[in-house]
Design a protein that fits this description.
The complex is a heterodimer. Chain A is α/β, with parallel strands linked by helices. Chain A has two domains: about 160 residues, Rossmann fold (3-Layer(aba) Sandwich), CATH 3.40.50; about 120 residues, TPP-binding domain (Rossmann fold, 3-Layer(aba) Sandwich), CATH 3.40.50. Chain A is built from eight helices and 16 strands. In chain A, strands 5-9-4-1-2-3-10 form a seven-stranded parallel beta sheet, with helices on both faces. Chain A has a five-stranded parallel beta sheet with strand order 13-12-14-15-16. A three-stranded antiparallel beta sheet of chain A has the order 6-7-8. In chain A, strand 6 and strand 7 form a beta hairpin. In chain A, helix 5 packs parallel to helix 8. Chain B is α/β, with parallel strands linked by helices. Chain B has a single domain, classed as 3-Layer(aba) Sandwich (Rossmann fold). In chain B, helix 2 crosses helix 5 and helix 3 crosses helix 4. The chains are: A alpha/beta, B alpha/beta. Chains A and B meet through helix 3, helix 4, strand 5, strand 7 and strand 8 of A and helix 3, helix 4, strand 7, strand 8 and strand 9 of B. Strand 8 of chain A pairs antiparallel with strand 12 of chain B.
Chain lengths: ~325, ~250
């Protein structure tokens, strides 16, 4: 049987993690179909149809799908579910909100946040904030699976020409109303996909001091992250949070500044290729995962760091 | 309004967990347990709504072994009115949990069900959404702000792109984020008073729902270890290492 992936997009563009989810989904079974639910989202359906791994695109266009209302999305997905052995999506706030609603209606026990496809029914997933890995086998007939996007490479975006089929919308829910979305616009790379991430923690002391971080982020073309403590303290907005309950990032370089390294934060960054920790407490747990640790006062170290970067002839971007 | 709050007993968030040598799970004997952190936010929010005069009764429920009652007792000590403990002997999956909760909702008829957005043990992030689906109620997940209106809630949700605000009609399910509020501590007199509040015990097997596992846990193992790093003496050395050794900048 085939796999149905639910695309995440903003009605104009495919959101990047959809491509990572496509890679994982096609490892489950290469007969991969993608469902695009949106409003005036023809460009999205077309982009997805060009992904070589995708065999078919089902496009349902209606104003009730302009925003991710899980109730409306679920009704449409259930209509198509019977033709598929697996329903999958990325395990970010989009898929986390949506997939369990589908799974419950299909009477399926969902497998959340997989990091490896072992076979059609067996997957590897982190538990306890990534402090243990569980190999699990789903015995449900129909499987609902969410995919940790950073554990899979993004699929190639061009070269394919899958058929696009139009389909009718399902009934809309009258009990949920979208009011507004406050999106944080930034010229910097997205936190989830950036090659370099520099994060600040409670040690930053206030929001203004994050300027020290953003100056370096500008220089390195890095995304800015934060620990839960920094977000809770109001230094920076929640969309920057890295950790068990925030975003999981796997950049080539992760620089943790003034972050002690609580279990919940480590869960979101410890798979990064190279980790740097700057902290004045030499005993901070963050040093146990750091490739390069610098025991120093961040208010002295960060300006020095910037001036050392300025001395370099070239910086990889 | 009546609010049902679901709480789970988990290994305390400060404990460094250990994987059992036989690969069957993690060590839970003699390990400090506590209420799943975002479930504390769910309780707190319910109590605040009651204090604002917008809710009459808060019922707290947990599903688990005998000791899971501790989490109910703790919720009673910070303001919940009575408790329900559904006894199960083994760990059950979120789908089974949501089926049990559905039975309790049908019996208790709450207007709202609150719970944490995710349990920090299995990290599934499923139960609230599943319960909403089974009841055909609206869901507001990852809530960081809740405003109670007439027969509706305005909920601000934490999403990857920032914040989203939706309105859901009551009855509704809300799953709570850690930034929703600051959970209070119980005072000693309230802890004493909570001992007198009733906790109803129900055996899961008496509810007539299928709670058998659908997912086989084949193996639990430790994640690959990172090799030990080094300490650098200066910012200059750090930049040189990143440039010439790690080759990442």
């Amino acid at each position: 049987m085939s796999v149905l992936l639910i695309a995440e997009h903003n009605n104009k563009e495919v959101r990047p993690f959809t491509y990572n989810a496509i890679t994982a989904a096609s490892q489950i079974n290469d007969d991969l179909h993608v469902l695009v639910l949106g409003h005036q989202a023809d460009d999205v359906a077309k982009s997805i149809s060009e992904v070589p791994n995708v065999k078919k695109v089902i496009h349902v266009d209606n104003e009730i799908y302009e925003n991710y209302i899980a109730e409306n999305y679920t009704a449409a997905i259930i209509k198509h579910a019977e033709n598929y052995s697996h329903i999958v999506s990325s395990a970010n706030t989009f898929g986390k909100n949506l997939m369990p609603r589908i799974a419950a209606l299909l009477d399926t026990s969902q497998v959340s946040d997989i990091i490896k496809v072992i076979s059609e029914d067996t997957f590897l997933r982190p538990i306890y904030a990534g402090n243990a890995f569980a190999t699990v086998k789903s015995n449900d007939k129909k499987k609902c699976v969410t995919i940790r996007p950073t554990s899979f490479d993004p699929a190639d975006k061009s070269g394919g020409s899958a058929e696009i089929t139009k389909s009718d919308p399902a009934e809309a829910s009258s009990s949920t109303k979208f009011l507004k979305k406050e999106e944080v616009k930034s010229d910097r790379p997205e936190l989830g996909t950036a090659r370099i991430v520099i994060s600040g923690g409670r040690g930053m002391q206030n929001g203004e001091n994050f300027k020290l971080i953003s100056d370096i982020a500008d220089k390195l073309n890095a995304a800015i992250g934060a620990s839960r403590a920094a977000v809770d303290a109001g230094y920076i907005t929640n969309d920057h949070q890295v950790g068990q309950t925030g975003k999981v990032v796997v950049p080539d370089l992760y620089i943790a500044v003034g972050i002690s390294g609580a279990i919940q934060h480590l869960a979101g960054m410890k798979e990064s290729k190279v980790i740097v920790a700057i902290n004045k407490d030499g005993e901070a747990p963050i040093f146990s995962v750091a490739d390069y640790g610098l025991e120093a006062d961040l208010f002295e170290a960060l300006p020095q760091f910037l001036s050392e970067l300025n001395k370099l002839n070239t910086i990889q971007k | 309004m009546k609010i049902l709050v679901a709480v789970k007993r988990v290994i305390d968030y400060n404990v460094q967990i250990r994987v059992k040598e036989d690969g069957s799970g993690v060590v839970t004997d003699n390990v400090k347990m506590s209420t799943n952190p975002p479930d504390d936010n769910a309780i707190e929010e319910a109590v605040k709504i009651k204090e604002a005069g917008k809710a009459k009764e808060i019922v707290v429920i947990t599903i688990g072994e005998e000791k899971a009652q501790e989490t109910v007792r703790k919720a009673l000590a910070v303001g919940a009115d009575r408790g329900i403990h559904v006894k199960v002997d083994n760990v059950i999956e979120p789908l089974a949990v949501s089926k049990i909760l559905k039975k309790i909702v049908e019996k208790e008829n709450p207007d709202l069900v609150f719970m944490g957005k995710q349990a920090i043990d299995d990290d599934c992030n499923q139960t609230g959404q599943m319960l909403a689906a089974l009841l055909n109620w609206p869901q507001a997940t990852f809530a960081s702000k809740i405003e109670v209106k007439d027969n509706a809630l305005e909920v601000t949700r934490e999403i990857d792109e920032g914040l989203e605000t939706i309105e859901v009609n009551v009855p509704a399910i809300v799953t709570c984020d850690l930034r929703l509020n600051e959970p209070r501590y119980a005072s000693l007199p309230n802890i004493m008073k909570a001992k007198k509040k009733p906790i109803e015990q129900i055996n899961a097997s008496d509810l007539g729902v299928d709670i058998n596992p659908r997912i086989e846990q084949i193996k639990v193992e430790e994640p690959p270890k990172r090799k030990a790093g080094i300490k650098v003496a200066s910012v200059e050395e750090l930049v040189q290492k990143l440039k010439n050794e790690a080759k990442v900048i």
